[in-house]
Each structure stands twice: as structure tokens, then as C-alpha cells.
Amino acid sequence: MPHVPLRPKLLTALAEGYGLRDLRADLVAGLTVAIVALPLSMAIAIASGVGPERGLVTAIVGGALVSAFGGSRFQIGGPAGAFIVLVAACVMQTGVSGLVLATLLSGVMLALLGVLRLGGYIRFMPYPVTVGFTTGIGVIILASQFKDMLGLSLPGGEPGPILPKIAALWGARGTASPMAIAVALATIALIVGLKRFAPRLPSLLIAVALVTLITALAGLPVETIASKFGELPRFLPAPALPDLSWNKVSTALPWALSFTLLGAIESLLSAMVADGMSGGQHRSDMELVAQGIANIGSALFGGICVTGTIARTATNVRAGARSPIAGIAHSVILLATMMVAAPLAGSIPLAALAGLLGIVAWNMIERHEFAALTRASRGDALVLWVTFLVVTFRDLAEGIVLGFALGGLVFIRHMAELAQLREGSAPAADNPEAQDPDVLRYRLHGMVFFGSVARLGTILTRIAQRPRMVEIDVAEVSFIDSTGVQMIATLAKQLQRRGGALVIVNARPDIVQALNAYGLAQAGVDILPAPL
User: End-to-end alpha-carbon separation of the chain, Å?
Assistant: First the structure.
């Protein structure tokens, strides 16, 4: 992989020349993104099992650090819907203090991945895995919003796994609140209507603000942010280190690993989306370092996991951002809003935020891509469905790892099937137009590696039973590994025991180097390079 410097895109943007027109464009984009991020950050935090103020802290602190140190010109950092499932489960098991510690540890791991230059490898995620886990997360988030959308009462708490959750929600259907349902439906209808008929307007903020105003003026009996969590603070909390005792660290470490895996994938995927929309090129390793710094900063202020957010990043690009200053401006605007309008935000109905997240979750369910991959091939369909089912009904991290491993096996099988050994003919020494009866020539095609050795080895074993001179033309071999070389060496030994010999012809320089590196010449095999 080409060496890319660990240099923030902010420095690059400023070095290229940054004027008043660029600043104006970035401020407008930052305001646009802040309008989207304000209700969304609180909704994601509430759905994650923590207070809404932690979502705002995450967007303010984490968002500013991602933009200041990131490897993407347009990336917007903050709390993401993809983390809701993991964060909620972490809070249930370790409490908020354990979540903060896991976020801090994850930040250290992410930064280390970037420093070790592993960002490019994390991008090697099969597309069916990405669609499978995104769709699974969307289904889980959607199911988690029914409680507040319907105003259900669950005295025993809401279960985490989706099947017990659905059973509990169904059992509590008699406690549904018509007012909560009306508020959620009104929010959803406003968001959908504004997106269709006025797509340039900030539909999320307008819908939540309008429903909140009507609810407050009418005095509707619905649960609000203030009634459940109390009044929102107007200032950021003082930074503080979480408890770093070994017992706390050992408990938080598995969660930190999951946060790191998902955070790396989500942030780099978001940066790639920004590249596709803008024509730019992000720096993967620098982006991981920035995500690490942002998660450490968020944890110090009591925030939750930070990652690149696809929807807000896309909004930033569409709003005309010129540099990472737009992301910093979005965080500053959120902080100013928190200082001025915190009491007003407390009046937002939870059913309205649930309706908003319901729309977000529905958009995360990649229906068209899911259907297309299901029809594409048996291998892609298998990887897609396994990832989706494990993420939805088992565990997010397990789904990603299993999907990635299964995708690798499908790829290995496909590459192995492309490797072929075809019988050819060798010209006679005294007459080039005639075939030499004492020489068997075969043409080897494709990748000769551990995946294709089993099939090719069976053919070569039958060849070894005919003790003559055997030539193998490797002009069309694109790659050979140690297992492939060992297969050829075994053929050579079998031929030699029967009085025959083996010659490799038309080997490119890289193939010659590989054959010699694995000791094929020492096995008594002549290796003839391809003519220049």
C-alpha cells in the first residue's frame, strides 16, 4: 500500500489557501449539520440507555476533535445509530461508568490502529457484510423505538435481545398511550412530508420542534426529556478520568474491542461515502488516529462512543463544506445551543425522538441492496444472510467477524475454481511444427495457492504416473504461494522416482522469485523464465 502521511486534512486545507469565502461556506455547512445533529444526538443517547446530555457532549467534544485531527476533509463525528445496540448492552452490564471507561480504551485502540498503519486493511470489508450488519442494526434500532413510540409501560425494564424485546412489547400492548402514538406518527409524517416536498429544509429539527411546540401549548400528557431525565445542563462537565482499576478495565475491555471494531468500520465507511460524493481521498490511518483522540476526549467529558456519521457527513458535503472547519463549526454551534436553549430542549416528547429514530432506522435497512445481493450469487447471499441473522439475533461483533470470515472462504473457493490445468503440446526438437511424443506439456492458469491445490494436486498426481518429461507453462499464473510450490515439488519428486523430469517454462520474474524463494530449484526442477 502507498505510504500516506499522518497529517490532518485540516492542515492540508489551510495550506492550500483558505479565504473568507471558504469560511462563509463552512459556517453555513456547520449550521446545517448542527441543525440535524441536535435532535439526533439526544435521540441516539436516550436509545442507548444514557441521558440526552451525553449525546450532546459526544457531538460537541468528539465532533470537534474528529474534524480537527481527521484524515477526511468532510467527516462529521458524533454519536451514531450503529452503536445504539452495543452501548445499551454495555450500560446494562457495566453501568455508565463502565461505558465511559470502554469508550476511553476504545479510543486508545483506534489511535494505535492508525499509528500502526492498519487503516487500509480495515477497509477490506466485503460489501455483503456491510449491508448485512447495517440492515441488522436498523432492525434492532427500529424494534427498540416501539416502546416510546407507543408509550408502553414496562415495569420490569425492556429486554436487550430482540426476540424477548418483541415478546415484552407485545405483552405490554394494553398500556399503549394514544397521545404518544399520535405524537410519534405526527413526527414521522412531518419528516417524510418535508423530505418529499421541501428536501432543502432541515426536516428532523422542524418536525421535532413543531411537534414539541404543539404538545407544550396543548398540554398533552406525554413523557418528555425533562420529565424523565431532568433539565439539561447548560455547560460541558469538567473533564475527569474514569476509574482505571484493573477490575474495571478487565470488565470494560471486551466492550472496548467491540467499539473499536465497529468504530473503525463505520468511520472509514463514512469517509469513503464522503470521498464518493466529493471526489476527494481521505487518509485512513489519520482518520483512525482522530477517531481515537475523539473517543478519549469524549470519555474524559463523560460522553459516549464517537464515530464518523454517514448521514451527517453526507449533509455536510451537500451543504457545500470546504474544509474540516465546517465540522468544528457544527460542534461550536451545538455548544452555543446547549448553553442558550437547554431548558427548551427538555420539552421535547420522547415519542417524537422515537419517531425520528424510527425514520433513521428505516433508512438504515438497506432494502434494495439486500434484495440485489440475495439474487446476485449464492456466495454473496450466504454471507449477507449469515451476517444479518447473527447481528440481529445474536451479537453485532460476532456477526461482523463471522461474515468477514465467511466472505473470505467464499472468495477462496471462487479463486480456487478459476485455477485450471490444461493439456497442451510441446514442439519436437527437430521439427517445431510437430509434437514431441516424449514431452507432456500443460498450461497452468490462475492463482496457485492453498485453496486450489486440492483440485490441481489430483490432476498432477495422475500426470506423475506417466514417467516422461513434463513441462508446465506458467505464463498465465497470476500468483503462487508456498503450498502451490510444494505441490509442484511433490510432482517433481514423483517423476524423478519414475525416471522422468519436470521443467517450468515461461515464468515471469515474480513467479521465478517465488519458486526460488520456496526452494523449487533445489528440488531438481529447471525453471525457464519467460522471454523478454
Answer: 28
Q: Are residues 357 and 426 in the same domain?
A: no
Mark whether 368 and 512 lie in a shared domain: no
Cell of 453: 491445490
Interatomic CA distance for residues 50 and 38, integer angstroms: 16
| Number of CB atoms found within 10 A of residue 52's CB | 25
Same domain, 203 and 88: yes
Give alpha helix (H) positions in 145-283: 146-150, 162-171, 178-197, 203-218, 225-229, 246-278
Q: In what order do the strands lie in the sheet with 469-480?
A: 420-423, 439-448, 469-480, 501-507, 526-529
Residue 443 within any structural domain of the chain: yes
Same domain, 355 and 490: no
**Residues whose CB falls within 8 Å of the CB of residue 41, separated by 6 or more in sequence, listed in order:** 52, 55, 56, 58, 59, 78, 79, 334
Query: What φ, ψ does residue 526 adopt, rounded to 5°?
Result: -80, 130
Does 369 share its domain with 435? no
Amino acid of residue 208 = V
Q: Which triple of cell numbers denotes residue 242?
A: 474514569
DSSP secondary structure letter of residue 73: S
- Average of pLDDT values for 117-139? 83
Residue in this structure with the C-alpha cell 439526533, named with its chain if needed? 40
What does the pLDDT look like over 283-300, one tens digit per residue?
999 999 999 999 999 999
485: domain CATH number is 3.30.750.24
Task: For residues 68 and 294, give the distance between their C-alpha atoms in angstroms, rounded to a whole number.
Answer: 10
Report how far apart, in Å, the C-alpha atoms of 327 and of each of 14, 18, 126, 295, 361 are.
14, 15, 29, 16, 24
Please give the Cα distance from 104 to 292 (Å, whole number): 8
Residue 460 and residue 356 share a domain: no
Residue 35 grid coordinates: 441543525
What are the E-state strand segments in 436-521?
439-448, 469-480, 501-507
Q: Is the pTM of this model over 0.90?
A: no
Q: Which residues make beta-bridge pairs with 422?
A: 443
